[in-house]
Amino acid sequence: MMVIAAIENRIKEKQEEYLETLFTLLRQKSISAQNIGIAETGELLTKMMEEIGIKTQIIPTAGHPVIYGEIINDPEYFTLLIYGHYDVQPPDPIEEWDSPPFEPTIRDGRIYGRGAGDNKGQLMAQLLAVKTYQEVAGELPINIKFVFEGEEEKGSPNLIPFVEAHKELLKADLAYTSDGPMHDSGAPFVLLGARGIVYVELEAHGADWDNHSGNKGNIVPNPAWKLVELLNTMRDKEGNVLIEGFYDDVRTPTETELELLKTLPYNQEELGEKIGYKDLQMTGEEYYRKLTLEPTMNIAGFNCGSRKTIIPGKAVLKMDMRLVVDQDPYDILEKFKKHVAKHAPDMEIKVHSMRHPSRTSPDQEIVQVIRDAVEKSYKQPPVMQPSLGGGLPDYVWTQVLEVPSVIVPYANFDEANHSPNENIGVDNFFNGIRCTCHVIEALAEFYQK
After folding, report:
1. How large is the angle between the packed helices 284-293 and 255-263, nearest 10 degrees?
2. Which of 56, 262, 397, 409 pairs as cysteine with 69 (C-beta 3.0–4.6 A)?
């Protein structure tokens, strides 16, 4: 505990320096979807890591490179693999930002800028934790490997091939990710998995161009109706997905996982206000079960025509399906295509992204070690949840690398990631540094038992 006390003091002494280090990374654009600033960010991040004493290399992939680093003080030590991503979403719409997205600004105790919460702020908290721990203790009591990818915002299309090709290099005892927001109550999170996704686009056609609805209203077919009729075959009024075999591989939750749901904090009224849906009517157990253990089918966008009175020549529908553990996105996609072919054979299907779901058992001893470390750091019990509601490439650690994985987000619940005015609380940033140090210390004690 003397090390932790010294770390607390060092973080307080270095606050201005640590903020400027983060700001340097935030100022560097790294928009993966547009390939803006990716190479420059990789070089900057590599330099920052090497200055901390991390042996670092830029490893090419079929897309954007992975920044890999390691500190191996003893091959026999416990090895932690830290994952994050250095790419960000486009900042559009620019006019809705209160300050320029790539000029980090502090207002009312928050750091505003694209990537502040997702994921540069959390990535930098981890790196600065390593720097702090080494300066205080001399060296790390565990080995740490770092994998920072540049395509998470594109669905991590090359992460699985990268991990498959470098299994020996990445060999570890535990994967640790800090991404996403903390619990809406403000409590820290320990998440044991993530839902997968199949994100598709359907395109229906009618005439070769738009037509006046008065002149051709009952003559030219409207492709929007084709999509509406197809949608009616996919889901019943209770929200059950009607695609044959959709639920076949959904894993039955364990008793421990179901018990976890009953312990999670829940305030229906407050949550309804935070998500902008005051008509929310669910018990806490029902809410968390739907969020973490059940798959979904969602209409993400529907575009056809305009404000003019026309019959559109084309209609486009975007859909995402959130998958839970043991559902295979490739299998679900084939079942989806088969359903579409049966009910609308002339429909075009484009696949935007796919990601596998993942889950680590809460019964593993290492999970309790992380939970206790987080509780000591934040001085309150964390919320432990079977899965993240959204998606992260957690599958590559649990299924490809075959190690347990935990997700401990550091950002505030209202970080506005992917939106204008993205932010991370100043306290959240420093608490993330502190929490990572506690995790390092706890894992060392666990290994030495």
Report:
1. 130
2. 56
